[in-house]
Amino acid sequence: MANSPQAKKRARQNETRFAVNKARRSRIRTFLRKVEEAIASGDKEAATAALRACQPELMRGVSKGVFHKNTASRKMSRLAARVKALG
Question: Where is this region: Disordered (predicted)?
């Protein structure tokens, strides 16, 4: 358990960061799910639009430290390939 004032403050900060990062991850997963659903429905226009909306969200997650850069790039690349294959 945190005893010093510094450790107590760090514990509070960790809780706050955890909540913020969890919300960001959830938001990004929602965008990813929308792309997946559009791909599953076979609607290329909807899938392309969902992918365009998803890309800045993923990169925002990278800049905020929620995801690693390569992870986001890999996800975008795989989704883009699947959207392209719809046509």
Answer: 1-23
